[in-house]
Structure formats: C-alpha cells, structure tokens
Amino acid sequence: MSRTYLGEFEELVLLAVALLQQHPTGAYGVTIADELQQRTHRTTSVTGVHVVLYRLEEKGLVGSALGGATLVRGGRRKRFFTLTAAGHQVLREMRQLRMGFWEALPTPFFS
Amino acid sequence: MDKSFSDPTPQHPSSRQPPRWADRLLSWLTPPDLLEELQGDLHEQFVQRVDQVGSRRARWWYGLEALKVIRPYYLRRRVARLANRQQELFAKRRATTRPYFTPEYPSPSLLNPDMIRNYVKIAWRTLWKNKLFSLVNILSLSLSMAVGVILFTGLKATFDTDHFHPKLNQLVRILTQETTEGVQTNWATAPLPLATQLDSVSFVERTVKLRLAGKYNLQTDKGDIPIDIKFTEPSFFDVFGFTLLSGNAQSLGNNSSTLFLTQKTAEKLFGSTNVLGHTVLVENLGYYTVGGIIQDPPLETHLPIEAMLSIRSAELLEKKGVISSASHDWGGFKSSAIYARLQSNSNAEQLNTTLQNYTQKLHKSQLQFLAQPLENITPGKIDLKNNPNAGTSWEDVKTQLFIILSLTLLAAFNYISLALARAFSRAQEVGVRKTIGATRGQVIGQFLMESTLVALFALLFTVPCVTILANYIPDMDDVIFSWDIALIVGLITYAVITGLVAGAFPAWLLSAFQPIQVLRKMKNIKLFRGVAVYKGLIVVQFSVTILFMILVVIVADYDRKNNAIINSTVPSNVLTLDLKGEKYQNLQNEITKLSQVETTLATNWYYEPLKMGKDSVTINNKTLAINYVSIDPRTLETEGVRLLAGQNFPEHMPQSTEQYVLVNEAAATLLASKSVSLVGQNLLLDSAFVQVIGILPNEIIGQQRPLLYRYLPNEITTLTIKIKPFTEIEATKAIQAVWKDYFPEKTANLYNVKAYRYSGEISGEMEILGGSALIVLIIAALGILGIASYSVETRTKELGIRKILGANNLKLVWILTRNFGVLMLIAGLIGVPAGLFCGDLLRKEMGSYLDFGLVHVSIAFGFVALVGLLTVLSQTIRAGQIEPVKVLKVE
C-alpha cells in the first residue's frame, strides 16, 4: 500500500477497466463512464473519466492502445485501456485491505 | 432530383450532429494528442443521448462537456507541450566536447515548473550569498524605479479619468466646430441654446447645461479666496457620478441663491464641511447660501468642481449685465458646455448625424456641432480649445512611456556594470552548469531569474518609499496608489521588464562561456572583450552626475545672489494693494494723505514686472512682440533708478494719448544696433507712434527680458505704498479702512512686497535640479560602491603578495583607488563641457546672471569626485587590513 495512493474515484475507474476489458465492447471512455453511471448513479463526465484514466496510465496501473473507429464517432479511434500487472496488484491489495476491515468488524454490525 | 439519391453518404439530420461551436471549442481546448479519442467518445455518447433525452438536451449537454475540458490536468498537458516545443528553439548545441556524464533523458525545458522553481531557488541563494551586491542593486534599482512608479501612477490616473460616472459609455460632450474665414477651430464648449434643441431628440435621455464662469473671489474671514464657479442645473447630479454629501440637488433648480461647494472647497473656506445654510459673498455676483456639499470625486476628472451655482442665477446675473449673456445667445459658446446622456452607447454616431441639422450661422462664422464620448476626453486625441482640465493627451502619454523606458534603462546600467564586474566569479559557475548538461537557454534563464528577482525586491522597496515621499512633498499630491488589480499587474510588469532589460546583456555574455576554457585556467584567459563596458558605464553615470551638479551649483549661486540683491534693493516698508480693476485716483489721494504713508505709486512695475502686457513694436520695418509694463511716471524718480541714457518721463504726462516710452537695455539692444541711438527715435507701438525718451538698466531681480515702460493709467492694477518705518500694523488698518469706504463690496488685498513676493526659499529650478542631481549621484555612488568592493575582493591575493614584498598599506589603497580616480577624471572631461552646454541653455531661460566661473565648475566637479572617491575608499581601505597569511594560505 505504501507505493500507490488511489482516490475513491480512481479506484472505481480502475475496477471498471478490470470489468470491461473482459467485455466484447472493451474498456474505453464511453463504456467506463456508462458503467460507472449505472452502478453509482452519479453523473460522470467522459472528460473527467479520461483525466483519471490518463493519471492511472501515468502511474502505470493501466495500459492503453488505439483502435476501433466507428461511424458514430466520425471515424475517430478509441483508446482501449487494459489493466497492467501493477494495476492487478493494487486492486488485489485494496480488496484485501477492505476485507480485513470487514472481517474485523463484529457481525451484528450488518443488521 | 432527390438529394438522398445523389449523395451516397448517410445523411444525419443536423439535429443528430453535435453543435459545431462546441466541436470547435473542443478542438481548441483539448491537447492535440488527446483530441481524437476524447472527441470520438463524446460523439458516441452524444448519439446515445439523443436517443435517450432528445436532441436539444443532448446538444446542450455536449456543449457543457466540451467546456469541461478546461481542467487543470488538460491545461498542464498543454503547457508541457508548449514547453517541449520551446525546447526545440533552444536546441542543445551539438557538443564538441562530451559532457562529463551523458544524461539519460533530454534536459527539461525552460518553462518546466520544476526548473522554474529551481531557478528561483538558485537565484535566491546567489542573492543571499552576495548580500552587499544584492543590496546595492536593489537600492539603486528602486531609486530609479521610484520615478518610473510615480510616472506610472500618473499614467494610470490618466486612463482612469472620469471612470466614476455611471453609464460612462452613454455620456457625450458636445463640441463646437467654428469655421471663421476658412479656418476651423474645435472648442470643447457649446452654446446653451443647443441644449433645448437636444432635449427634443428622442434618444437623448438627459442633458446638462453648464456655464463656466471662471474664478471669483469668495470673501471669508481669511480674506479673498478665488474659487472656480460653474453654473448648472439639478440634472448634473443625475448624469454625472458626483454625489451630494448633504443637501438636495433639486434646490439648485428651485432656488437661484443656492451655492454648492465641494468638500475640499468647504474645508478651504470654512475649515469644515458642516456649513449648510452659511451665507457667503461672491465678489461681483452677490450673496449665496450654501445648499449642499459635493463629495470629492474618487478619481481624476476633466470637469473639476469647486463651487456650483444655479443656472437660473446665471440668467438673473445676465439681465443685470454682471456676466456676459450666453443663455440665449449662440455666439456665447465659449463659456458654456453641454453634456448629454444617450439611451445607449450606439447612439453616439446617430447623434452626430442629428447634430448636423443644428449647424448655425453667426454673422462672421459658422458653428457645427459634434458629440464626443466622455471616455475619449482623457487622454485626448484631438486638439481642442477651452479644454483646460482634459489632462494628458495621447502625445504626453507616449512621452511619459518613453521616459519610463529610458529610466528603466538607466536603472539597468548599475545592474549591468555590477554583473559584468562579477563575471569572472560567475564564469566558473557557468562552466560547471554547462558541463553537467545545461543548455545556453537554461543558463540565460537562471541569470534572468536573478535580475527579475532583484527588480521585484526593488519594487517592494520602492512603493513604500514613494508613498512616504508623496506625503512629504506637497507637489506630489497626485501620486495616489489606488490599489486595484490593474495597478498591481502594471507595477509587477514594470518590475519584471526592468529585471529582464537589466539582466539581458549580462545573461547573454555570461551564457556564452565555453566550459572548457573557463574551467581550465580561469585567470589567464580573456573572457570577453567587453569587460571594459562597466568602466564605460561608470564614466557615463558620473558625467551625468557632474552635469547635474554643475547646474545645481550655478543655480544655487544665482539664487543666493538674487536674494542678496533683493535684500539690498527692495525696502521692507512697502505694501502693495491690488486695485481689482477699480479707478484708483481718489483712493490714491486719500491713502497718500494718511499719516503713516510716505508715498504711493500706481504702477505695474516694482523692480520687476508685477503685471505685464505684450504688444507689437515696429521700428525700421522690423516688427517684434515685446512685453511691456505700465508704470507710474514718478516711480523711477522715487526709487532712485538711474537711466543709462536719455531722460525720465516729463513731469506732466498727457493722460489721453501716449507720447513717450522708456525701454530697458535688453529691449534697446533688440530694437537698435547701437542701443544709445534709440533715444529720440519713434516706434510704432501697436498702431500709434511713440517716442523713446530714455533707456533703463535691465531688471536686477528675476528674469531678464526686453521690456517697454509705458504710462497707461487704465492698465494699472497695483498701488505700491511706502509707509513710514515701524508703522506697518497701523498703516494696514488705515489703508483697509479707506478701501472699505470706497469699495465696500470687495476686500482689500494688501501685502508687504518683500514678505509676500520674495519669501520663497528655493526656486522651482533648484528643487528639480537638486532632486535629479541627488538621485543620479546616489545611483552612481551605489554603482561604484559595488564595483570597488568587487575589485578589492578579486585582488586580495595580488595585494597579499604585494604586502609580503614590502608595500605599505597606503600604497595598497592607492593602487586600488587610482583606477577609479582615472575614471572620475574622464567623467569630468565629458561632464564639465556637457554641464556648461546645458547651463548655456539654462542661461537663455533665466537671464545672464548665471555665473559659469571656474570656481563653480570646480566646486561641482570636486564634490562629485569627492563623493565618488570616498565611496571607493570606503571599500579599498579594506586593502590595508589584508593579512597575507590568510589570503594566501589556500591555493
């Protein structure tokens, strides 16, 4: 945990990338924003998501490649993001950390 | 033909397209390398949205989204890109020598934030390390910047003029274009009848009529105080941003005896602003009651107000014939003004067309009218008459900018000379930097950062200094720091520019060093040919100082002599009485009869002109305009002035026609080749011939100008009264009593000549010259201080060796000081002739009493040289304290 600090939104975006890269649509700006919107019911803007993605890329947690131009996009390519090994590692550590906390909590807490 | 067939590409209805403006915005704002994917995503999402919420909301959403690109992250990426491109400009020189270690990454560019932070840090450390140099630099920069800052606040005040009026862009002033015999003159004033016609124009919201009456004396306990009076109507306070502290604007319309005063005027007249209901007598106009106090405007204005009366009062006064009639007379446009507020600022052009219909024909000239937006008054672009308070014109603004720039350059001189003097010690630093891989651009950046920092510190120092100065020097009332963003940005920009100008030359020179040369053998190589530049700069500075000092000494001497002459010639028991345009014969007789009075003279000349006129003089087909004074024929006799040639006015002068005239020496030489031959000749004075009967010596007080002495009883404005010694108080009372009998409506302006006219201590020239000389001297001294200190530091080893070899302390100090002495002498060789030349120009201005004797020149030069050498000595004296062991043990 000492290596990387992730904000909440960053973490969600990273999770969305992890989820969507399995998907046939792939993980790029629009799909990620849609996924987040569906799950969190927050208004998410594509530009904001992009900023987070670029930051994650700078931190080395995701990698990216261009491709998949379509007509609705006016022939513009998408930037597909994929999780890197480091990204995997960070997510796993996050999950462990959270799980640790939840397990330490007494059971009546849930009711 | 159906369109959908002709075009194979699928047609999106325009509503399915994102808005064009948003797309364009996006492509401007987004970093180019990210544009494709981002725009693509947005388009894709837009199409989804159109299906979900309809095209209108989708388009709206798309626009918002495009705007969201303005976030710090994208901006930073843009800046980084800019910086990269800029780095290409300062491409790394292909090294002929291999750097000590090869950097793995290309060195960061100049605009990189980290690098800038680093520049600031290093600059701060360098400045801190060389505290003396930094202090000298900051002090001398702040001194010369002070003048720049003063001018700068002036400039800002100019541009802020009148910006306190509400709806400023809807206000216009009516100008009059008078064409007389083909000659066109523009006046800032307009005839009042025009205002009534303007009121009927649909897009004119409101008009203000203003009569400019000029100065009238208000009688107070302290005597007469001349106050500028304007007549106006209540709408004045609606249209303009002037506000009333107390009283009601309407009373100006209802009551013709109402007087409004500004805060400042009320303070001047009564010493308080709580004076509603006070009654004052305005000379010639009558009694008025204070009905309101006007708040002093927060900014400069082209329409300064002291006191305002009702325009109805002006009409009453016109009927009485006290003031000229202008209310219903188109010809009286020179003393009245019209302002108007339009419905919107776009009406100004329209008004100009409308005004063409009102063109008036007077019997000799034609009047046309124009509307001038209030904003265009200051700084003014067109040449206007009757526009006394418009302040600085564009031309002046340009001149001031030029002065600010040249001052900046002057301030930069010291910095340059000091930086060059220290070039040797900085050379090593440059060498090391370059070896590690710094580009030339980065080295330049480093040096510029240093100079900019110095300039900013100087600014921090200057502003409080100027504020303090402004409080002490009465003439600097107009230097007001009205702090706002524009001023702060302006001042900082000025400081940064100063810093960049000062740093440019040293940075350019120093950054050119080759590391291999400077690091190998520092002492032996010739770093650059221009090291002598700083000597040149010292010489320039000191010659300018010497120039000023010579002028100061000469003018001071002139002042001293002048005072001595005044003391010996002007008697202390003479009073002057201002006649205020009244007939004086009876008054004079009455006063002469008073027991305390010796003699009275009705004259406009008393050792120097009290009031002058100007007339054309023709002799031998030569026409000149010469000043004249009106003089009592008995003056010369009474005062014992001896004529150079000819004779005095005869005992009984004809009252009606002028027959004789006296001239002074200066006028005589101007009019005739051999001045004595002028006596007895006839001159054509204006349109009548008069005979020159005598020649007087030149004035011994004040300026020397050619002068005619005439006897024109109607032009006499002053009575000089010589009283018996030690009776001044009684005499004053008695004379005032007599005056009261004759002219009960006016107060007597009675002064002691000597106390009133000659008590000023320092003349204006002296103040300006002395001030400039002081500033230049301090700047020059600070500059030489730094360089002297440096020259001691660099030569410590040499001096140590000399000391071991047996040189005594005196010798060491002499060695160091000698060079500076030579520089002083060279400065003297340039400065003295320049001073004499400028003095000669000054002599034309002030008359021939300026004395350019050797004594004065040497006093001035000696003083400057002494200050310079003492400054140098304060540093070089340290050479005597050098201990060879300490300075030589290293190495």
UniProtKB/TrEMBL annotation, chain A:
<feature type="domain" description="Transcription regulator PadR N-terminal">
    <location>
        <begin position="19"/>
        <end position="93"/>
    </location>
</feature>
<dbReference type="InterPro" id="IPR005149">
    <property type="entry name" value="Tscrpt_reg_PadR_N"/>
</dbReference>
<dbReference type="InterPro" id="IPR036390">
    <property type="entry name" value="WH_DNA-bd_sf"/>
</dbReference>
<protein>
    <submittedName>
        <fullName>PadR family transcriptional regulator</fullName>
    </submittedName>
</protein>
<dbReference type="Pfam" id="PF03551">
    <property type="entry name" value="PadR"/>
</dbReference>
<dbReference type="InterPro" id="IPR036388">
    <property type="entry name" value="WH-like_DNA-bd_sf"/>
</dbReference>
